[in-house]
């Protein structure tokens, strides 16, 4: 049977709806990162407290991705996404009207994680409509919704200054989430090919499989690096280079653009050349860029290095999720939640690494060297695991398809 092209297959209204849901959710998830410099004027914080504040939404997202992944499998990704959007309204209202101390702000930051958990519903909603040869591009397009971070880094501090405070930004964010909820409810549809829900006993069996942990580690580095830097770079530019809040967030926006818009490129190239081949190049590139950043070069140079590093991490996100459906296609909803949670944990750790090492050493050199070492460790793990994958699949009469592009029909042989 002749294969359909990407644009002839799937369901485009659902793909676009998944993108919008992911986009607006990511915009809300990272609200505190760019605003942190302005918030610090109301609630003075040391470097570790700042790192904790911007890391808490990522921690909340990591935990709740498991919950939304479970719901996606049982009640479907569309209904799960609707629940996620309605729940996201809660921390926005709290941040807008009810925060009067740093401890209360910590609670709001943690609750913002429900927006970050959107990953566990948005990607299965889109991916289940597409065959395996188009998974990389479909999930890359839906996953490019992390471009919502650009709206936050570009406009959050400007809106805070114009409307007289960071609290107003939380109130204004209610408008787009309501509009997207209405659009999503009308146009998104669950795929007729959605797998039947799994028994609870089957969930634990996933975590007994080595490959599940491998994908978690891979995504912990790529997505964790992207979202962690997205939330922390405004602090970095403000602290290291003395940039004002708006300009620091603008520079962060340039870096975020690279990680966001190159994600579908990573998925597309992984479809063509293989996920592991792409990740080999991307982990090496990210590790090199982070090592160069550790020298704390002049601002124009560090901006170029961060742009290139974030591009590698963003493309790596797309490449990892070209591989996951090939190996765990029947458990995609749950695996998306598990792998996404691992990515969130990486994003939670990154600001803490930079903040604590900056406080103890007075410089960012050690922090970025540690991040570079983590990227290179992922490269070594990838190199080692490929030999096992080749032996496993070739031993069953199939090709080592995880290491190639093109047809992936025998990946679960």
From TrEMBL:
Keywords noted in UniProt: Membrane, Nitrate assimilation, Transmembrane, Transmembrane helix, Transport
Protein species of origin: Paenibacillus harenae
Chain ranges passing through the membrane: 20-41, 53-71, 83-99, 105-125, 137-156, 168-191, 212-236, 248-266, 278-296, 302-320, 332-354, 366-385
Signal peptide range: none
Residues covered by the Major facilitator superfamily (MFS) profile domain: 13-390
Topology of the protein relative to the lipid bilayer: Multi-pass membrane protein
Name this polypeptide is given: NNP family nitrate/nitrite transporter-like MFS transporter
Keyword Lipid metabolism attributed: no
Pfam family for this entry, one: MFS_1
Keyword presence, Membrane: yes
InterPro entries with a match to the protein in the record: MFS (IPR011701), MFS_dom (IPR020846), MFS_trans_sf (IPR036259), NO3_transporter (IPR044772)
Coiled coil segments of this chain: none
Stated family: Belongs to the major facilitator superfamily. Nitrate/nitrite porter (TC 2.A.1.8) family.
Entry's localization field: Cell membrane
